[in-house]
Each structure stands twice: as C-alpha cells, then as structure tokens.
C-alpha cells in the first residue's frame, strides 16, 4: 500500500541545504500499522510530510495506494483523499473559529461528497463523541476531544491510509490510552493502513507490527514488534530508546493504561 524507496528530503537553509531524511526505504502492506520511532529531530515528521506532498522529495520514489509520487499531480484530489494525516498538537490543528461541524464539513465539501449532515453525525459517533458536539468550538473541548475531532476529520473522507504524527504525545497519560484504544478499534474496523510516529516504544508496540528506527535522518534499523517486546535489538541506539521509554514492558503499557491485549 505504501512503498518508499531511497527517499531523500532536502531543505534549503541559509548556508546551503540540509537533508532531513536520507535514503529512506520501507514498505507498508495493506491494513498494516507501521511504526516510526526515533529521537526528536530525526526526520519522522518529515517522512510523513513527504508522503502527503507537504515536504519536497529531492530524490527517491514514493508510492501510496494506486498513486506513484510522479502521478500525484494528476491524481490530485483522489490522492489527497486517500491519504489523511493526524498531527501531534490538537490545539494547533483545528481552526479556532470553526465549529466541529464546520471542521468536518470542509473536507466533505472539498471532495464533493454528499449527505454531509449524516456523515458528520456518523463520524462523531465513530470517534466516541455525540452529535451534541457538532456545534462546539475547539476552545470548548478538552485535548482528547479535540484529537477525536481531528481523527474524525481525517476519516470522514474514507481514506485508505492514515498517517499519525505523535497523535498522543500532547495528551495526558490517561487520555493517551483512550485515543490509542480508539485508533486500534478504528484500524480493526476499517482495515486502514497506518503509519504511526512516536518516540515512545510502548505506544508503538501497542499498535504496530513493524517499526523503523530513525536517527539523524536515516533509518538505522527495522524490527518486528516481537523483537521490541523481547527487547532483542542489535543497535545500541535502539536499545537506548528502549531504555528511555521504559522499553516494552507490561509495566510501561499499564502505566499508559492501554488495553493490555498482548
Ligand atoms: N522546513 C524545514 N526547513 C529546514 N529544516 C527543516 C524543516 N522541517 C524540518 N527541518 C529539520 O529537519 C530535521 C527533522 O525534523 P522532523 O522531521 O520534524 O523531526 P522529528 O519529527 O523526528 O522530530 C530537524 O533537524 C528539523 O529542524
Ligand atoms: Mg515530529
């Protein structure tokens, strides 16, 4: 469903250029949840942004669903609809002067989708918010409720791919668990293909089957989730990430309060 091959993302800087991602290669199968983990500044968000066309690919190829990156301009609206993204900061990602209803209606209008009222109510119910939330503004919502709205906005156009950039990092621990459980349910119900970026390996282990470990713009290791759970990692850097986040021990998962279906 997603194929990224030798992707390099280059930004212009005052002194020349900077490669935020270098030679990254990975694939994600249909219905799979793929994790990307790494310390801050390692290029995780840049990979997701490149996949949605928000960051410039200097070289390499990306293919999501039926659309190769070169055809993206042509695929246009269909491509943008197929691949949706949820950002870290639920305070910054919703328009402060839009009601929930307006926020959810906008992507429907852009994509020319009908039966909007019905879809808006259904989307709210799907993320665990009642129809009464429709006419609230972001400042009338908690962080977790905002992130549910952001997830509803992404899903309302029925994408095949959902990109999640640290979707729970800005939330309180107890709220994190609710959102992670919601994402797991949505993945199962919709057979979505997902990429989840996190710096927390317990979060990755809860949702993902495989994970790429990034450092300084490069993928330094790719692991099955069993290896993370068993803490069998070759790379010293990955081991340090495991230690930093409490590894993938039951304790770490329970601390977040996720459904421990392991
Ligand atoms: N638009 C940009 N221009 C220049 N540098 C950027 C830009 N966006 C990101 N970077 C740099 O690219 C690197 C990777 O950033 P990012 O992908 O956001 O890391 P992460 O999500 O892993 O924390 C950082 O050093 C960041 O400063
Ligand atoms: Mg980031």
TrEMBL record:
It comes from Paraburkholderia sartisoli. Keywords: ATP-binding, Cell inner membrane, Cell membrane, Membrane, Nucleotide-binding, Transport. Belongs to the ABC transporter superfamily. Pfam families: ABC_tran. CDD domains: ABC_NikE_OppD_transporters. This is Peptide/nickel transport system ATP-binding protein. One of its GO terms (molecular function) is ATP hydrolysis activity. PROSITE patterns: ABC_TRANSPORTER_1, ABC_TRANSPORTER_2. The keyword Cytoplasm does not apply. GO terms for biological process: transmembrane transport. Residues 2-241 form the ABC transporter domain.
């Amino acid at each position: 469903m997603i194929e990224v091959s030798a992707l390099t993302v280059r930004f212009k800087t005052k002194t020349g250029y900077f490669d935020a991602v270098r030679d990254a290669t990975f694939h994600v199968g249909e219905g799979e949840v793929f994790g990307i983990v790494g310390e801050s500044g390692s290029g995780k968000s840049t990979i997701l942004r490149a996949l949605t066309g928000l960051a410039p690919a200097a070289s390499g190829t990306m293919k999501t669903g039926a659309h190769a990156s070169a055809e993206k301009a042509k695929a246009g609206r269909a491509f943008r609809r197929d691949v949706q993204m949820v950002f870290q900061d639920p305070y910054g990602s919703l328009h402060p002067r839009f009601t929930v209803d307006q926020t959810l209606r906008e992507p429907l209008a852009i994509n020319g989708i009908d039966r909007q009222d019905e879809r808006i109510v259904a989307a709210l119910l799907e993320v665990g918010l009642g129809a009464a939330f429709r006419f609230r503004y972001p400042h009338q919502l908690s962080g977790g409720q905002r992130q549910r709205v952001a997830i509803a906005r992404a899903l309302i156009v029925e994408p095949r791919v959902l990109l999640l950039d640290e979707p729970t990092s800005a939330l309180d621990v107890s709220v994190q668990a609710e959102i992670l459980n919601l994402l797991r349910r949505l993945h199962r119900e919709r057979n979505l293909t997902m990429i989840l970026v996190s710096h927390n390996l317990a979060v990755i282990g809860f949702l993902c089957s495989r994970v790429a470990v990034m450092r300084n713009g490069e993928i330094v290791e790719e692991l099955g989730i069993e290896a993370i759970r068993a803490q069998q990692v070759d790379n010293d850097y990955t081991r340090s990430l495991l230690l930093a986040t409490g590894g993938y021990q039951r304790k770490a998962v329970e601390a977040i309060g996720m459904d421990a279906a392991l």
